[in-house]
Design goal:
With about 400 residues, this protein is α+β, with helices and mostly antiparallel strands. Helix content is about 65%, strand content about 15%. Strands 3, 4, 6, 8 and 9 form a five-stranded antiparallel sheet that branches.
Length: about 400
């Protein structure tokens, strides 16, 4: 494109920027600002508990500046230290409080502004925040192995059994896979919606959810359409193997979210919750192994290296999620990962349905297939009771 054409393309954007600047300087905000009370908002990003010390990281996610005047712990005023007491829009600061908190007891931390507004953060069970060291890295890696890697590999051992099935029952397990994945997608979407209210308002949690979901769904669809051209030339075997990898990828992203939940639960002292999550997710992920190998069950030439790669692709992200959840948990990052997982899983559901339709013609909603789908939903629901 020539320079005049490029300028013609960006000229309306420049004019829009000028109009917005004029509006902010002379429009209703500039004229009437003094007629409205200040809009103050503080979001807690992270709370770290050290020996007799509480460290709070906050951000001003409101449009007006905020001045921190008091800090309370369990309704008692406390002295605090901060490098910046007045925060403008999107500015962050760290508050340090010397407080002899007790292991295992709840904490309620309140930040008061000079206008008397109170913002609270509840810690149900106080426990020392894990430090980033080799011991804790190893501990959470082992948790990720228990939750993600081992159960998925155990699920892959169903491959010989699936190869003995007739075509009708092979379709049953493909439909069973769809039921598993639909449940996982809904679960990821539900968790993501819950996190939108915990993300700082300025980051627009709903927008992050939509971007992560649709960006993943459409990107994977575009890649799949591109790859299908080459796969068609290589036959059904290549298509089935590619579908298994897509399933493993979608499950892997979802398992990253599971690792986040487990790591964050242990890091805030919810040991019982973390243990139940481990048991529940292990049962979940065992059945996910069936979903991964179902498309290649009819391909006798499957190689062991592909099974290893599929298992690691689906299970290893749990370890990464556990590390992030324990040492650098972020509601915004968790929201984005869950949205990406939901989009990836939904794409895989579409791909499996297309795969079944190619081999069976237009007959998808047979009694056996519907039964498989419902059983998949029920299995995920029943194993989810342990997580609940």
């Amino acid at each position: 494109m020539k320079l005049p054409n490029i300028l013609a393309g960006i000229f309306p954007i420049i004019l829009l920027g000028v109009l917005i600047g004029i509006f902010l300087a002379f429009g209703p905000i500039g004229l009437l600002k003094t007629g409205f009370p200040p809009v103050e908002s503080i979001s807690f990003e992270k709370v770290t508990l050290e020996q007799d010390v509480i460290i709070i990281e906050i951000i001003n996610d409101g449009p007006d500046s905020v001045t921190i005047s008091q800090v309370l712990v369990n309704d008692a005023y406390n002295l605090f230290k901060t490098d910046k007491q007045t925060l403008n829009h999107l500015e962050r600061t760290t508050i340090r409080i010397d407080y002899p908190w007790a292991e295992g007891l709840p904490l309620v931390i309140s930040v008061l502004t000079d206008d008397g507004l109170k913002f609270e953060k509840d810690i149900p069970i106080a426990t020392k925040t894990p430090e980033l060291n080799l011991s804790y890295l190893t501990t959470f890696a082992i948790l990720g192995m228990y939750v993600g890697v081992m159960p998925v590999f155990l699920g892959l051992l169903w491959l010989p059994f699936l190869r003995t099935l007739s075509r009708r029952w092979y379709d049953f397990f493909l439909s069973f896979t769809v039921g598993l994945l639909v449940f996982l997608a809904i679960d990821a979407f539900k968790e993501a919606i819950g996190l939108t209210s915990q993300v700082a308002l300025v980051f627009q949690g709903v927008a992050v959810l939509a971007i992560g979901f649709f960006l993943t769904l459409f990107t994977l669809t575009a890649i799949s359409e591109r790859a299908s051209i080459d796969v068609t030339k290589k036959g059904v075997t290549e298509h089935a193997l590619r579908l298994s990898y897509m399933i493993a990828l979608g499950i892997g992203v979802h398992n990253l979210g599971e690792g986040l939940a487990i790591g964050s639960a242990y890091s805030i002292g919810e040991i019982a919750l973390g243990s139940l999550l481990v048991i529940g997710f292990m049962m979940h992920n065992l059945t996910e192994g069936i979903a991964i190998v179902a498309p290649i069950a009819r391909q006798q030439e499957s190689q062991i290296k592909h099974l290893i790669q599929l298992g690691l692709l689906a299970g290893a992200p749990t370890i990464i999620g556990a590390w992030i959840g324990a040492f650098a948990f972020s509601n915004l990052a968790a929201l984005f990962f869950l949205a990406v997982g939901a989009g990836a899983i939904l794409h895989v559901v579409v791909e499996i349905t297309k795969h079944m339709k190619k081999e069976d013609g237009a007959i998808i909603f047979t009694f056996t297939n519907v039964l498989g789908f419902v059983v998949g939903l029920l299995v995920m629901y029943l194993t989810g009771l342990f997580v609940a």
